[in-house]
């Protein structure tokens, strides 16, 4: 199956009221594991990369590995650039072949953010790529981008105006969600999602997925959160399974890297499958 546009993946999910898991991948092992999970669930999936991962792994290397692995996949997949405030990185990733980008200009005032997002939408359009927009910071840093402080909230009218005037394909509202593990059970503004969807008929992106309850996911997806971001759960599955294996390796004084990688891959596949199934994506591949 060729790589599919993020817009097509999200529009179908939005119309059918299921969520597409957007997993933050880090390297070839996590790309392979997430693709395997989507394949096993027969689900469309979005792989997303932070700016940190793009820089650490290397942009061209990352897209080449993604393409090489995705070409054997039989479910729809897309690659998305997560929270990116840098216009040059957006341009480079669009040129390299990313299917969508989150232009995260929430630190600018809304008028400036809006004007620049219009430009990013036009630029992405030339590549057939989609754009996610954001006007309020999601609490908690995601791979060094963002802030641990809650950001200023904007009015519903401001958010609706931003979505309409920019023509973004998906919008990321701040509804009390946060990146990383929640310190206490989050209270989310579900109504905000309904209000935005009713006013704009645009899919929403649910950030800060790790740690939300099954009911929160189901309700928010039913209201129009067609893209559901999961990063911390993937990182933890990857690293905790590695730690577990390494402790055992040390105890037995037996060091076999392929066994370590297989153990980590299995943990990431299992975490990704659980989320895909929970979001209703299983069996939705076309
Ligand atoms: P979590 O790390 O809380 O899963 O959030 C992921 C996210 O929203 C990426 O943008």
What does this structure look like?
Helices cover 51% and strands 14% of the residues. It has 286 residues and is of the alpha/beta class. The protein has an eight-stranded parallel β-sheet, with helices on both faces. Helix 6 (110-126) runs parallel beside helix 7 and helix 10 runs antiparallel to helix 11 (257-278). It is globular. 1,3-dihydroxyacetonephosphate (13P) is lined by residues 24, 82-83, 142, 179-180, 207-210, 229-233.
Distance between the termini: 9 Å
Q: How do the SSEs run, as a string of H and E?
A: HEHEHHEHEHEHEHEHEHH
Chain-averaged pLDDT: 96
Shape, principal axes of CA atoms: globular
Structural class: alpha/beta
Alpha-carbon Rg, integer: 18 Å
Largest sheet geometry: 8 strands, parallel
What ligands are attached or bound here? 1,3-dihydroxyacetonephosphate
Instruction: Give the spatial strand order of the biggest sheet.
Output: 6-5-4-3-2-1-8-7
Q: Helical element count?
A: 11
Helical residue percent band:
40-55%
Spans where pLDDT lies below 50 across 5 or more residues: none
- Count the beta strands: 8
Bin the strand percentage: 5-15%
